[in-house]
Amino acid sequence: MLDGPPRLERRRSMDRRAATAPLDRDLFTSAVTQALRHLHDARRLHASPLVNCSLVRAAVNRGDDPVMAIRRMLFESIDQLSRGLGTADQGRLLRRCYVAPRQSQVLLADALHMGVSTLRRHVQRATALLAAELWSREQRVLHQSIHASPVSRAARASSV
């Protein structure tokens, strides 16, 4: 019984470290997929691993709410896909499935004259494209923050 509280404290400490550790690509992609599925559920978005990604942390540092930052990140990226050459169909599909879902996937597939399994394949590809774009942005933000940190500036100055 004596080692109960310290063990709990160690677990909390590990949870805090895990919560702030950078996401790897697979976890990031999975988190984007889950965030899309729960886009309109603030409680689920608040628990998302995306809360700790650099893109969201940067928005939070500017005063945004984490849930709104995740939503904005997804909405803006979907809009960007919708306007892109070669990605417009994927962006529109993600919008119809997640941003403004007006019907079930069965009805949407019927409206698009395709089977449900075909629709799901298209949604999966569009989601992968969105996640890849966001991953690329995340890596740029991480790279910029590493090179802009006082420690890295001091290290560069001492190597000159």
Radius of gyration: 20 Å
Query: Tally the helices: what do you get?
Result: 9
Biggest sheet overview: none
How far is it from the N-terminal to the C-terminal residue, by CA? 56 Å
* SSE ordering: HHHHHHHHH
Query: What does the average pLDDT come to?
Result: 85
Shape: elongated
Question: What count of structural domains?
Answer: 1
Q: What is the share of helical residues? A: over 70%
Beta strands, count: 0
Low-confidence stretches: 10-18
- Taken as a percent bin, the fraction of beta residues is under 5%
Q: How would you classify the helix and strand content by structural class?
A: mainly alpha
Structure write-up:
- This protein is mostly helical and 160 residues long.
- It has 9 helices and no strands.
- It has helices at residues 4-20, 25-37, 42-46, 54-61, 66-83, 88-99, 105-111, 116-148, 150-159.
- Mean pLDDT is 85; it is low at 10-18.
